[in-house]
Design a protein that fits this description.
Layout lengths: L2 H18 L22 H15 L5 H6 L3 H5 L3 H17 L16
Amino acid sequence: MSVDQARILAEVAEMLHAIRDDAGVDGEITMATRFQDDLEMESIDVISLAGRLQVRYGNAVNFAQFVAGLDLDSVRELRVGQLVEYIATALAGTEAGDGSADAGLGRAGLPA
């Protein structure tokens, strides 16, 4: 795992703990942690995560667009590591200034 991915994982884990600690989710959140089976995320939790990602990373990271590209089985098995990899790729595209992080990404209902 790259340094950037390790930093992003720590940031995402902090967000997830803030969202799910009320449900008794404690312990380490890793790249292999599954949103549904391990964190027992509900729809409202996913909305909260999307909002926190928007605040932290801006328009470069569009969680709704990311999830929309997955089939139902993939969403059920979604791991934190997949989100971390998506964020790292999106941010790398933004830093490179090539616009690839925003290519084809719409607002998808996320607040600006």
